[in-house]
Amino acid sequence: MQKTLIAVACSAALAVLSGCGQAPSKSEETSQNQVQTPTSSTVEQSTSNSLLADWTGPFKGVPAFDKMNMVDLPAAMEAGIAEQLAEFDAIATQQAPATFENTIVAMEKSGKTLDRVYPYYGIWRSNMSSAEFREIQGQIVPKLSAFRSKITQNEALFQRIEAVYKGEEFATLTPAQQRLTQISYDRFARNGATLEGEAKQRYADIQAQLAELHTQFGNNVLHDEQSYVVYLTKEQLGGLPESFIKAASSAAEAKGEAGKYAITNTRSSMSPFLTYSTERELREQVWTNYYSRGDNGGEHDNNAIIAEILKLRDERVGLLGYDNYAEWRLEDRMAKHPDNAMTLMEQVWPAAIARVAEEVADMQAIADADGADITIKPWDYRFYAEKVRQAKYDLDSNEVKQYLQLDKLREAMFYVAGRVFNFEFTPITDGSVPVFHDDVAVWQVTQKQTGELVGLWYLDPFAREGKRSGAWATTYRSHELLTDDKPVVLASNNSNFVKGSPGEPVLVSWDDAETFFHEFGHALHYLSSDVAYPTLNGGVRDYTEFQSQLLERWLSTDEVISQFLTHVDTGAPMPADLQQKIKNAATFNQGFATTEYLASALIDMKLHTTDPTDIDPDAFERDTLTAMGMPTELVMRHRTPHFGHIFSGEGYSAGYYGYMWAEVLTSDAGEAFAEAPGGYYDEAMAEKLRQHLFSVQNSVDPAEAYRAFRGADANVEALMRDRGFPLPSAMK
């Protein structure tokens, strides 16, 4: 996700470093309220370093992804770190009294060199990892940790921030400026700035240890994803769709196993295999490989790392006076306290596991009728759920998949962006914008009515060796209004679809199509920003997923289905009866989807509210799930040993509940659109969406922003209706 350098530097959650990069600002004159930021001599003397060069070319400069050299990374990071430390020292030691302009704004303007370097680092970390990079990463991570500690422990700098926050000028600032000042103060105070002596040093030491452990955790998961591949022969392809077989053949060939079929250890490969394969023993093997990532013993096992991370996190927040890590984490989120997040999840959990029991009964009945002579196991769930879907709704997921072409889905997203956000996407095919891999494509984004340039959108859609699993969005440069030259936003979406044979269209599942729309929602959030200050981009974690979850709703609108969900062979639009079947089955399998997610969210919260002394992560996961009544026919979406959201960084730690918190808002907002005269394309609702939910980013308190959009707070009942669950009051 996007973050400014001060946010990166001052936050304990340095999970993904592929955040925003911002073009250098113009020189600024020194005045009583401004600071002349020094230029690092190291940067000046490093003109040969590919990563330190100013971004040049069209669109007000773009990253030189075609020229980036990994060996330049350590020196580039060191130069950027030195420059920003010097800038912060200059802010901290100036003689003029602290003001919003010479302290808070000056900090916002700092770190331009690191802003350029971080996107390169992020690409190697997430999109193009290698053994060579991971060795370099091991050198960089401790330096980044020390860098962040030097900033948050700069007492003179914190005193100036505090002076602005608690001074008379604060009352004269605009609401957005007050929010920026408060966020800046909190980021220092909540990350050790108020500590003294040994406690302050211990805090810094813990930060350094955690940074290394987070990196090691992520690298271990990546190792297991790359090392456990199931190769099939032609005799083992029973039940698999032709499109999947072709993709598996291409994957095997890419791995030097021509003539075989590779089931890689990623969700995009695992899930369709478990859905369609008639080879039960192979389903078990593929399932085991996937859900055992990080839990295979040996040097790449993550259990000891998890235990150490939990102990260090608990000790660190203890230094700040908090009872547990989750209490610290949620203090500045919408939920405010772990009890509030737990209350929401515990309202939904009973309905979710009750629905699982119903789903399993339906599956077992079909297995018995087929004479399978089995008891439903986790590796059977997707397979028999598909049979139930066909039996109950006459809906075949593979039939639906024939209408879900990746390129057409992308066109559908552009259509929605045009209707709802007034954006127009134009492909850039002249090579003027460098990319880091041949799979990456770029589009120019403009305002439809005025033609005004908004930004660029990069898409890296396919899985490959060295790319982390899952789907994510980020920015290489975010919106801000601190310079005379308004920047061009550089947004990026990244997925792990299985690439088909050359010339073959890529077909995806309905779930994957929703994820594609979801991540595009993040990109639209970046592109819609109208905030003045970099730190105010983004938002609190249990709110920022709301905008992206909401965008998923447009996939199932009649306008999208009728125009873009066309048959891969005939080009015919999806027939009306199939559309109706999809709508009829909208709440199908919600027991599985909700329970696998909630199990992960609940374990995350319980891990971070429990005394971690002598904790055994595997045993904790097993015993806690048993006590919760977790159905044995499925597992957590992210088992603890590969739960990268919470252990390869701190972005979602004690915060995975946030998807459901945001889903409550999503369900409520969805009902608002459904009730509007123009439905999901209602112009008045679209305007309110852009004005109150997307453009303001984190410049307005999320609860206030949502009330401005909806006129009231959301409640859990909309979510329960969405999932076809009984309302909480009906379950008492």
UniProtKB/TrEMBL annotation:
UniProt domain Peptidase M3A/M3B catalytic: residue ranges: 273-723
EC number(s) stated in the UniProt entry for this protein: 3.4.24.70
Co-factor remark: Binds 1 zinc ion.
UniProt signal peptide: 1-23
Cofactor: Zn(2+)
Residues forming coiled coils: none
The keyword Signal belongs to this UniProt entry's keyword annotation: yes
Keywords: Hydrolase, Metal-binding, Metalloprotease, Protease, Signal, Zinc
Domain Oligopeptidase A N-terminal: 97-200
Highest taxon of source: Bacteria
Catalyzed chemical reaction(s): Hydrolysis of oligopeptides, with broad specificity. Gly or Ala commonly occur as P1 or P1' residues, but more distant residues are also important, as is shown by the fact that Z-Gly-Pro-Gly-|-Gly-Pro-Ala is cleaved, but not Z-(Gly)(5)
Disordered: annotated segments: 22-48
Biased composition (Polar residues): 30-48
Pfam families per record: Peptidase_M3 (PF01432), TOP_N (PF19310)
PANTHER family for the chain: DIPEPTIDYL CARBOXYPEPTIDASE (PTHR43660:SF1)
Annotated family: Belongs to the peptidase M3 family.
Protein name, as recorded: oligopeptidase A
Species for this entry: Neiella holothuriorum
